[in-house]
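@channel sequence for tomorrow's demo:
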Amino acid sequence: MQVVRVQSWPEAVAVRSEFPDAVPVAGGTDVMVAIKLRNLRPEVLLDLSRIPGSDRYRVGPDTVRLGPRVCHTAVAELLGPHLPGLALAARSVGSRQVRNRGTIGGSLGTASAAGDVHPALLAAGADIELSSVRGARWVPADGFYGHRGGTALAADELITGVRVPRAAGPQRFQKIGLRLGLVKALCSFAIALDRDGRRVRAALGAYGAAPVRARAAERLLEESGALGTARPLPAALVTEFGRLAATSATPVEGGGVGADYRRRAVSVLAARNLVQVWDTFLAKGHHGHHRDGQRQAP
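structure tokens (generated this afternoon):
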């Protein structure tokens, strides 16, 4: 096995172009385990750990730009005021050691259906930067997952950045697992409201074959007339939201639980987190969101 160490993105995409089967590695939490278990036998490892700035983030007026080597610990501990849903998801990733080494770019590259950050990125409306010798392009998270082969990433491309809108309203993430962060999620759910509480984005993870938006559930809320008010959501609406969320994909079997369990669990997660995010919206006061004052829901 050959290890190629690069020190710039132009050098990295040139190597990727020459060796399309090269496996990128930064934190190595997934790749090195797969190699050790002999589930992965790459001829070339592309070491991205020496590229300057790839482990940095930048908070702008409207978005947060994440380098692909930003670790989950940094997201969880430093970006909660700006990206509360993603911070909650990052906090639930593995053990502290895994969070310290595991990266946002690595999670996207692996694109495991059970990955914690994926539904949070979908709910937040993130974009992923994919680069090659042909140039760079931005792909919305909505269009990144669920492709043949896993993601929209072409054979000669690398993930070079992630752009996430700063939270204008409350966000939530929650997962169900036998031991939470220490095992893969059995199902997960993320939800985000806009500043006025009139628009909602919701997404599921560890449920279908790929992370997916809960579009039917979103439409239900937006067409109900209940959003944007200063009143609690009707119980029947909350229940139906959970039911529709569970229809977003065909639940997979595995992890010791069946499809029926996942369907029921996602329905409960969706309803619970809708209530929690709406309660946060009401507690802040109708139309009372502040971009720099967003705090994580308890």
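heads up for whoever presents: Confidence is low (pLDDT under 50) at residues 286-298.
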